[in-house]
């Protein structure tokens, strides 16, 4: 499949997942932004919601993956070597990346608010925010590994084995990122998965650095 095809599939996949996630949030009674509810009402809703917030949030990293692939494919299609048009295409691509990063914070904040509402203790909410946001961030490392590995092999800069190291590390990081909602309290039963993925990421960087130095 071409990059254009992957981008199209990613765009459709994002829309379908986003609709499904929001439908689940509404069904379980999650207080959506701009709903007009008072802070006390929001707190009561979050307490009643309990652990039901976790399941729809498991697929949140997939939406960011889909939007990034979509944006990259659209950028490739729009790139014509014309400075003005290319600059605007880059602005659009940057907007998608910034949206992904910002929404990762929003998604993590939901768990922080839920914890704060149940325990009436701000530090619990902030700690929960830290844990979930840290976990979700791994999906961006996975994207970097996939993108640079694919591009590096395509131009003959990276050897095949190195690219597969990137792909394997990306898969581990993505799995670890996807289960972040279940690690909100700091207990992570598959922490070794993310750790191995991060070590693979670090090794991947070292090899890339050596290749860059050798070619300089």
TrEMBL record:
Keyword Transmembrane in the entry? The reply is: yes
Transmembrane portions of the chain = 6-28, 58-76, 88-111, 132-158, 164-183, 195-214
Would the keyword Membrane be found if you checked this record's keyword annotation? Answer: yes
The UniProt keyword set, sorted, is:
Membrane, Transmembrane, Transmembrane helix
Q: What is this protein called?
A: DUF4386 family protein
Q: Which organism is it from?
A: Saccharopolyspora oryzae
């Amino acid at each position: 499949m071409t990059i254009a095809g992957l981008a199209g599939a990613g765009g459709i996949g994002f829309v379908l997942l986003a609709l499904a996630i929001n439908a689940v949030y509404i069904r379980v009674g999650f207080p959506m932004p701009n709903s007009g509810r008072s802070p006390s009402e929001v707190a009561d809703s979050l307490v009643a919601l309990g652990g039901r917030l976790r399941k729809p949030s498991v697929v949140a990293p997939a939406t960011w993956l889909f939007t990034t692939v979509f944006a990259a494919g659209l950028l490739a299609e729009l790139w014509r070597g014309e400075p003005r048009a290319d600059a605007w295409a880059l602005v659009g691509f940057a907007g998608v990346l910034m949206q992904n990063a910002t929404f990762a914070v929003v998604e993590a904040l939901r768990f922080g608010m839920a914890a704060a509402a149940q325990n009436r203790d701000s530090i619990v909410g902030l700690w929960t925010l830290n844990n979930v946001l840290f976990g979700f961030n791994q999906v961006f490392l996975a994207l970097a590994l996939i993108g640079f590995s694919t591009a590096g092999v395509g131009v003959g800069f990276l050897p095949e084995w190195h690219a597969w190291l990137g792909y394997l590390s990306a898969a581990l990081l993505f799995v670890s990122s996807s289960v972040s909602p279940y690690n909100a309290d700091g207990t992570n039963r598959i922490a070794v998965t993310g750790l191995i993925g991060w070590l693979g990421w670090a090794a991947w960087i070292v090899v890339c650095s050596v290749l860059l130095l050798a070619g300089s």
